[in-house]
Amino acid sequence: MGKQVRRAMIGSAAMIITPFYGTAHAADALTPPAIPTVDAQTQSQSGDIAEGSDIVVTATRPNEIAPVTASLQATQPHSIVSRSFIEDSLPATADFNQIALISPSVSNTGSANGTGLSESKAQIRGFQDGEYNVTYDGVPFGDTNDPTHHSNTFFPSNTIETLIVDRGPGNASQLGQATFGGNINLFSRATRKDASVEMKGTYGSFNTYLLRGLVQSGAIDKLGGTEIALSGQHVASDGARTFSPFKSNNIFGKAMIPIGPNARLTLLATYNENTFNQPDNDGATPSQIAQFGKYFSLNNDPNSQTYYKYNRTHKTTDFEVAKFEATLAPWATFENRAYTYSYDNETLSGNDVTLFATATAAQIATANVVTLTPGAKAMTGVPGYTKTNKYRVFGNIAKTRIDFGFGAITAGAWLEWSNTYRQQRDVDLVTGGRNYIEKAVADPISKAATPQDIKFDQNSHTNHTEEFVELELRPISGLKITPGFKHVDFNRQIDATYNQTTRYAQKQSNTYTADLPFATINYAVTPQVSVYAQYARGFLAPPLSVLYVANPGLSTVAPERSTNYQAGAVYHGSNLSLDVDVYKIDFTNKFTSVVSTVPGEGTVFFNQGAVQYKGVEGQITYAFPIGVAVFANGSRNHAKTDNPGMIRQQVAKAPEWTAAGGILYKHGPIRFSLIDKWVGKQFFIAPGGSIAPGNAYDNPVYQSRGYNSAILSARYDIGPVRIGVEVNNLLDSKRVTSISAGKTSPFDQYFYQVGRAFTGDITVTF
Question: What is the pTM for the complete model shown?
Fold first, then answer.
């Protein structure tokens, strides 16, 4: 299908179903889409805005140049970020949270060592990491003790073609442990019909360099039109913070293999390795900042717990997917996705890098002691610990879709299980020997004493299944009504030689279930205007720490729940692209715990607390005929506690507003953008609801007026060579972006924006 014909089809809102993406998008009004042939597949990728995602976006001038846009087939608020924005306007080292940041209601903390050079955390409407899903090609991924994510560990920017932020839990077919506060959906680099080679090199501030290669085989006729994409990337940097070098290596491979005219198999694999120096409990205290500056992290003093050689981490990950798609009949399709991924974190860290907050000689002498023999007297040393967190996850997602003319039904299931090993052991960082400093503990059954150098040694497992069904009804032209239902079973198990917190052998298990209804509606008012609405229930299982207790049977904790109501409208004109939405989300069953006053009962988990999220969001882009576009987006976000008899307070790390704006130019050999993102006022620590003097949680120190970061990017093509320059944080803002509370305020840990940074790059394509 030629591009002009295809654009005409898109403009009239023809419909397509997204495989394993939580929302039904454009599809033919009468029949389901057949599996594309190689030619159709490749041509459809030649200029798409949302490549790889099967989401159709009207290819108007503003949508083609905008950094973020939406689809006319939306059933919930979302933002689509294309590869061209990732390539043209962001640092090559950017992680997926940096890419998502351009979206309304998204804020970001972390990256304190430089963009992509340390982990970051994104927030969506105030929902924190672990309260929303992240998926890669439709596969949910995350840690196995709770569904949090490591932003620069699995998928660097060279592995991402398109990123879509869903500000809502999606339909019944949106899968994940945290179908709760939203989704960040990543889609892998696309294969191409035409062969090509692209080489990229960058160098910039903090002695940071990146080398990247991408090879496209093109359609291989001898293999039936098979297309293969291979990519490799190496990053090395001294880091923005003191004694904090970072190195990363990534390889990526993908093959699209046609199997006859109506089926195809896609194989994907990626491997990533990160090595860096950073304390396990990161952040600089006020006294460290006063003495060494905002970007203090480590030093070169071997008598200190902050010695850089005592604080190092090596992480490796892999991720593999085999996806089979087939048209079974003119009215039926089938898809199956089998996958596995792993994470291995091996860390050595100082025991407490905040201990020298006042830096007196007496405190240093007291802190730097170790016990090298059980029961012996403490002696001078440098205490620290080793940490392992490694897991392997296996899963399979299958679904089928049957079209019956005036509607379609989609049904499927997700099965996933995981095996995890975690440990921490105390050591003397100088000698590497065991440090016997833990409290004496005995197994209550066997009476066996736990070695006093072991914090924990634990195996755990998850078993997770979800079954879903969606019924898409098309009663009149342009109208889609899609009710759906999902059933969730989630089981956690611990088989610990020495359980975390209790430090003796325990076998524990908990199973959580949920029945989640969904309903969406999308109506194409005209070919350029659509309106939508959504009702959805969300679910978040308790974390593994619920089983770190002496008496799990005393805990009454139930899964957290959310009820989402959203509505919005999208307009795509020849020069103007606009979408706006409103939302209200009721969040209940917040997890909390107390230490029981009854001897022997220990910590007890239960549910107490609710939060109400509501707000308005919007995106707008206007494109001029000469290749210039201006855009803006923003949100006003209310995320306040909703507990009877208590003062309603904005929750921690939930900005009250976000805004972004900028200008872009793409014409001929020139590409230019100037983009700024603002994150509004927020609390770094949950407010206490009191104005009593000395209440730390109401101290202005723990509140942020907001901060912003502008990125200037310019590139020029000279034949096959593209030369570029970027200035990150153009206005050199160095405001605090996060504070972690310590035992008292002198032990709080602060994180700041990295100042202005420069990068030059050269890309050669042939």
Answer: 0.92
